[in-house]
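#struct-help
A.M.: can someone run this one for me? Single chain, 265 residues.
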Amino acid sequence: MNPKTSGTAPTAPHSANLEANQQLARFRVILSHTSHPGNIGSTARAMKTMGLSRLYLVNPKEFPSEVAVSLASNAHDLLDNAVVVGSMEEALAGTTLQVAMTARRRELAQPLQTPRQLAPELVAEARHGGEIALVFGTEMSGLTIDEVQLCNRRVTIPTNPDYSSLNLAQAVQVLCYELRATLLDDVSHLEEQRNLASHEYVELFYQHLEETLTTIGFLRPKAPKRLMPRLRRMYQRIGLEQEEVDILRGILRATLEFDRRNKDE
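D.P.: on it. C-alpha cells below:
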C-alpha cells in the first residue's frame, strides 16, 4: 500500500474544494523557535494536505534544511515560500485573529476552546476578509506565556489525559483539518438550497395521509393512539421538500385507487 495515499477519504466536489482553498489562503501557520527541521517539513506536508500554504517561521534553529525537504513529501513549495522572521510580532503583523495552540490553563484568563469549537469563528473571519494566524510553539515546551498573550484566541486539542503526546505536525494537522471540514460543510449547505414545503402544504399532506390510513384500515379512528403524532414527528425530522410532498401524496392517491379497485372486484 502506498503510504502517501493510504487512508485518504473521497474528495468533495471541485467547486467546494476550490471555495475552501480560497478561504484557507487567508490563514497562516506560524511555528515559533522550531528545534528540529524535520518538524518543519512534516508541518508543511500536514498543511498542504488540508489546503493551507502560508508558513511563517520565527527563529527556527535550522532552516533551510534537506531534512525538512525530505519530510515535506512533495510539499517543498511551502518551504520554498516560507517566511522567516526574527520575532513573533513580525509573524503576526497584519493579522486580525491570532490563535495560540496551548495546553496552559492556570496562567490564562481567556478560556480554551477545542479546534471544532473555534473553527466556525475562524472561518467566518476569513469570509469577511480577515487574516488569521495559527500559532504553534516549540516541540518541548510549546508557546511561552508572552507569546500566548500576543494572541486573542486560545485553542487546545482534547487528547487522552493518560497519554496526551502530540507532535508538532499532528497538532497542525488537527487544527487545519477542522478548518477545512467546517468550510466544506458550509459550502455544502449553501449549495443545497432546499426548497422546503410550506406549513400549509405539509398540513394538507398530513390530512391526506390520515384519510388514506383510515380508508385502508391501518388507522382506526376510534382507537388512533399516537400514530399520527408519531408520523408527524418522523416527517418533521426529515424536513419535507415540496417535491417530496408531491411524491408522497402521489403514493397515497395510488394507494386509495388500488384499494378502491379491490373493493369493486
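A.M.: thanks! The longest helix spans residues 168-192.
D.P.: also worth noting: The mean pLDDT is 88.
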